[in-house]
């Protein structure tokens, strides 16, 4: 069972030894191939050294949280393999898709943002699952089940459990820490949470309460419970009088002057927050400095936009063209939506250029293969594939006619070359035999061989 588990990509730890699986040799650092010319059990086929550990400190730390997660994955996959013979059919992908909404509804009362924070998965990924555009992958479902304390093998193999029922009787299987992070959506529950925050000493600020409840913005709390929010804010300000606004005009003016000397100057909102103000308009008492900072910030943003535009225009002349996602990653963005929103025309041009390149690439390869058929001397298909940056299997699959012609032409060239070499060797041996006979010597094999340094094929 252990060796069968080790063949799964998701399993990276041994349950018996409570250690991570190692795929590289501890001596040479290489990964032995699965099939080698000379194979010995327990010996690296690359450096011929023993693959076992001679001292225990080299083993991975078994107390790490990541290792515990890997051991849990190994146990779950082992249970799944053990339950496979009793299953009449393999689990459908739709089953995993139906599990996620039930998890969200039961764990965070339908709040996707809070659920994403609990399980450690991007919110956009969960939204795509809910819209049925993508199905959850095995590794992410394992991560969700581990965070919620749910058996991965049970939700795939057993019938009538939480994944296939709308009852709430199975909520006890969820992890208690996940249940504690539930985001209340009902009005009375939200009020109870705010009232509890009012009883704390010292009282937290509104941002801390919003983070605790899983809200991204405090405006949601202000809209639903405005009176309690005002009371909480006033209590927090009374508990921290030193955090009140700086009323000293000289200090405000000095802060604006220092910001103006910075390159680039910080945003006005940031300056206002550092001075204890909620909004930057409170700094307009020094209109000249205020406008100077705004103008320098505008010049800085314009310069950044121009530099960014120049970089995108330079991408349009690259060869081969890159995808928009690759361009965004090289410029420091996680997604290409930032480029699409700010520079839609350039983004469209980059995408169109890459699409045209992908469409024309097979034809360009075909023309390159046809030109190879006119080269002298002929080259092999392997050399052609190396020149084009492809493998022979790809050329055989996509261009069977041209590939076959290259192979046949190179084979005929080699055959004719060998044939000519043999003919020249025979002519030379015949001439040597005539020379020996003219000198009155018998043209034996030994005498011809000693008189000639030619190809060995001549003696056959």
CATH architect. name of the largest domain: Orthogonal Bundle
Cα end-to-end separation: 59 Å
Give the CATH class of the largest domain: Mainly Alpha
Tell me the major beta sheet. 2 strands, antiparallel
- How are the strands ordered across the major sheet? 1-2
- The domain count comes to 5
Could you give the count of β-strands? 2
Helix fraction? 55-70%
Total DSSP helices: 22
Provide the gyration radius in Å. Answer: 37 Å
Using the alpha-carbon principal axes, give the shape.
elongated
The third-level CATH topology of the largest domain is: 434 Repressor (Amino-terminal Domain)
For the residues shown, what is the average pLDDT? 80
Order of helices and strands: HEEHHHHHHHHHHHHHHHHHHHHH
Strand content: under 5%
The class by helix and strand makeup works out as mainly alpha
**Contiguous runs where pLDDT drops below 50 for at least 5 residues:** 163-185
**CATH superfamily of the largest domain, please?**
lambda repressor-like DNA-binding domains
């Amino acid at each position: 069972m252990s060796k069968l588990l080790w063949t799964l990509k998701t399993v990276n730890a041994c349950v018996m030894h409570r250690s991570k699986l190692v795929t590289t040799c501890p001596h040479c650092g290489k990964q032995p191939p699965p099939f080698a010319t000379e194979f010995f059990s327990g010996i690296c086929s690359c450096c011929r050294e023993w693959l076992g550990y001679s001292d225990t400190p080299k083993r991975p730390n078994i107390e790490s949280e990541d290792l515990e997660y890997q051991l849990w994955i190994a146990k779950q996959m082992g249970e799944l393999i053990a339950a496979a013979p009793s299953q009449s059919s393999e689990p459908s992908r739709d089953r995993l898709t139906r599990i996620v909404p039930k998890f969200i509804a039961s764990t965070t009362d339908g709040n996707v943002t809070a659920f994403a924070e609990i399980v450690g998965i991007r919110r956009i990924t969960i939204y795509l699952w809910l819209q049925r555009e993508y199905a959850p992958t095995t590794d992410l479902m394992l991560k969700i089940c581990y965070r919620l304390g749910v058996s991965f093998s049970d939700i795939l193999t057993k019938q009538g459990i939480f994944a296939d029922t709308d009852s709430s009787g199975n909520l006890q299987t969820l992890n208690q820490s996940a249940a504690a992070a539930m985001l209340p959506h009902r009005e009375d529950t939200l009020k109870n949470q705010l009232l509890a925050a009012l009883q704390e000493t010292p009282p937290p600020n509104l941002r801390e309460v919003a983070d605790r409840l899983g809200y991204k913005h405090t405006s949601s709390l202000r809209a639903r419970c405005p009176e309690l929010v005002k009371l909480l804010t006033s209590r927090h300000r009374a508990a921290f009088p030193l955090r009140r606004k700086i009323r000293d005009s000289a200090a405000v003016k000095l802060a604006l002057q220092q910001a103006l000397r910075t390159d680039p100057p910080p945003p006005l909102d940031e300056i206002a927050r550092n001075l204890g103000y909620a909004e930057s308009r409170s700094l307009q008492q020094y209109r000249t400095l205020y406008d100077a900072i705004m103008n320098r910030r505008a010049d800085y943003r314009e310069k950044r936009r121009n530099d960014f535009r120049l970089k995108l225009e330079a991408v349009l002349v690259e060869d081969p063209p890159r995808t928009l996602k690759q361009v965004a990653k090289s410029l420091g963005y996680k997604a290409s939506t930032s480029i699409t929103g700010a520079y839609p025309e350039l983004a469209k041009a980059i995408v169109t250029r890459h699409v045209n390149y992908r469409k024309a690439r097979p034809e360009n390869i075909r023309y390159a293969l046809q030109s190879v058929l006119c080269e002298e001397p002929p080259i092999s298909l392997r050399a052609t594939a190396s020149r084009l940056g492809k493998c022979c299997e790809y050329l055989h699959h996509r261009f069977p006619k041209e590939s076959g012609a290259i192979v046949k032409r190179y084979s005929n060239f080699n055959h004719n070359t060998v044939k000519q070499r043999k003919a020249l060797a025979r002519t030379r041996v015949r001439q040597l035999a005539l020379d020996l006979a003219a000198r009155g010597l018998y043209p034996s094999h030994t005498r011809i061989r000693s008189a000639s340094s030619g190809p060995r094929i001549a003696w056959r």
